Amino acid sequence: MAHRRLGFWRRFAALLVIPTLKVWTKRTWLNLENVPPSGGVIVAPNHVSHFDPVVVGYYIFSAGRWPRFLGKASLWKVPLLGGFLRKVQQIPVERGSVEAVKSLDVLVDALQQGGVVVIYPEGTTTRDPDLWPMRGKTGAARLALVTGAPVIPMANWGAEKIFDPRTSKLRFRRTAVSVTTGRPVDLSPWAGATPTRAVLEQMTDAIMRDVSVLVGELRGQTPPAVLHDRPRRPIARTEDFG
Fold first, then answer.
1. Closest CA to 124 of 110, 139, 109
2. What average pLDDT does the chain have?
3. Second label for 49, Cα 20 to 30 Å away, from 17, 34, 56, 178?
């Protein structure tokens, strides 16, 4: 994506965010070449802080692509904000509603248009006490199974020092942040499979293993052999994406 083709609103969003991040963060971008230069792709990052989406978005922008994040559909009903989110091509997702089935169609369409869709498999900031990734929800796996789009695992570290979800403290000093990506997750064993609970969970575990390895590389530590888990609920499309 040539930045000259961003259009007014996406360029405006970039001008709002990037200069601030250049001052606020000291960035280390690793393996940018793992983000495909074109075509639909699912990016699956770990989630350590409410601040990390802007860091993740900046990394993807630096790779020459425009990130499309999922957001609660209620945000699109807020005056001015909803219009802005549409202009910058973010994706509303209904949660806990039969309307959520339509959200999958929106995501499929975004990938078919060649977009970069960012899905946090954990669905929320990690509840692991040491901020290691948790077991994921199945939205990224389901979307990959439906579309065949590659899933790029991503790890970020450092955003939790700017805003730590465990303490809710915000830090304004310049802070080092690091982001890396891996090669597409090998999901070939499930190609063409029926999206049963077992299949989706196996695919999700494969995605989270790759993400955890990358997080370990950034932290210089070995990730836990067993990821932190939450009580499992029956899988439904309304809950796949968080």
1. 139
2. 91
3. 34
